[in-house]
Amino acid sequence: MKHSALSIIFISLLSGCAAKNHYARASTPLISQPAPPAQEKPTSLSALGRDPAEFPAYVDTLKAEARGRGIPSDVIAESFANIHFVDRAIAADRNQPEAKLTLDAYLARVLTADKIAQGKAMMARYRTQLRAVSERYGVAPQYIVALWGMESQYGKIQGKEDIVSALATLAFEGRRETFFKNQLFAALQMIQRGANDAQSMKGSWAGAMGQNQFMPGSYLHYGADGDGDGRIDIWNNPDDVFASTARYLARSGWRVEVTLPAGFDSALIGVKKAQGKSVARWLRQGLTPQNAAPPAAQTAWIVQPDDTQGRAFMVYDNFRTLMRWNRSYYFAISVGMLADAIA
Ligand SMILES: [Ca+2]
User: Fold this and answer.
1) How far is the CA of 278 from the centre of ligand 1 (A)?
2) pLDDT tens, 155-173?
3) Fewest C-beta atoms under 10 Å: which of 15, 118, 134, 207?
4) How many whole angstroms from 211 Cα to the centroid of ligand 1?
5) What are phi and psi of 46, to 5 degrees?
């Protein structure tokens, strides 16, 4: 990928929260689940030794593991009441469209004039709430609205799949079993805590829920009660959607802006694995962070989105993770472009 594309992510997604230092505590998944790396070969259930006829028995093992994790039996019974094999989850997970589209083709599909116009209207309609959330979390409102638009068409398309079934099916598929099992147990925890009742735990085939398409794990980590009613309702309540999205963006920060010393060797700029150095080593080379420096032992990379004259940023492994996933990368670019368009 060229740096010019990177600049879109950086300048637009990140300049809005430049006032605060939000570098990551830990590598985190995107809001939606990331697609598998493009180089991963498609496999079939039979190649993995998994016959859909074995799904009910697999579900029994999931229930047993949930009990072992301390989820009460009545919560398990309620959560699995509608359990079914989700064919579409398997088909769609194998056929991530972005892996086959160019970036321009992807943008033409997702960044429509209608979506931009609606985004501007939403910015105006929710101006007061967005300003409050923006101040609280240090995230500019257009990024919150852009994520909302990209994830669910501003709340309109949230998915109607039973989340427990979608996650159980994806875990059964086996390519990322641990990831999806953990998301499933997070969904059960949500039901246990009363985040939503089991019948209403709906979302996409990929397990993403609500107006901001949080995975259950993201909900547990980043969910925020925007209107103070004691619930975090990302399905129906825009205040909660805005607060949760802003909290996610603030916590999953991935960069700190730096000033490069005169004569800095441009060969050191980039996100190849070999270009990573500890923060301490970068500082010894004369880089000056514009916010508090990250932990000295943290491995970081230097990027300069505008190639020569522009600002430089120190980024961490979660940014590289983002770049490895085409879908997420395209998605991040499209969010940045939508934010610019509606700001
Ligand atoms: Ca609430």
Assistant:
1) 41
2) 999 999 999 999 999 999 9
3) 15
4) 13
5) -65, -35
